[in-house]
Fold:
Amino acid sequence: MRHKNPIKKFRIEKILSEHAEAGPHAFVVVLDGLKPTFNIGKIFRSAQAFGAREICLVNIPFFDPYPAKGAFKQTRSRSFATFEECYKQLAPEGYTFCALDPHGGEVMDRTELPEKTAFILGHEEFGLSFDAAAYPELRKLRIRQWGWVESLNVAVAASLAMYEHCRRWALGDPEPKHLKNRYETP
Structure:
């Protein structure tokens, strides 16, 4: 059942998210000015599933938390007015910034992904809110596609990037106890 007041639900879950424990993996997801519809909530859901350290919301004052299915309040987040503010927080922590770009860049599954990767995903229609050339160390990554569509849905692209990072860095991690045997029938 949808919450009767999504703004109130957002405010409550945002406070919980800001105080949530960091996820077990070192990567972060930077959402740069995404539309406040269903994609952001779905990305939070995937970030919770893949154990992202946190999600950085850039110029996203509100989004519908319903598609997150409870993952928003359980996934640590920080909010920033601009990408520059976000960059100034994460760069000293040793993050490598990788913007997903369907039009060019290194092929994600064929390039190195540092353990401390910050995946940047821009607005669904307009892309990044900042000039990537102003950040010469920023890497552009693309996800290989074989079909005719121009790009993947931003929530799908984020999920694939998180999975690829976990495939490389978390293979030795045991599955959390609360998930073991949950699909076995007695």
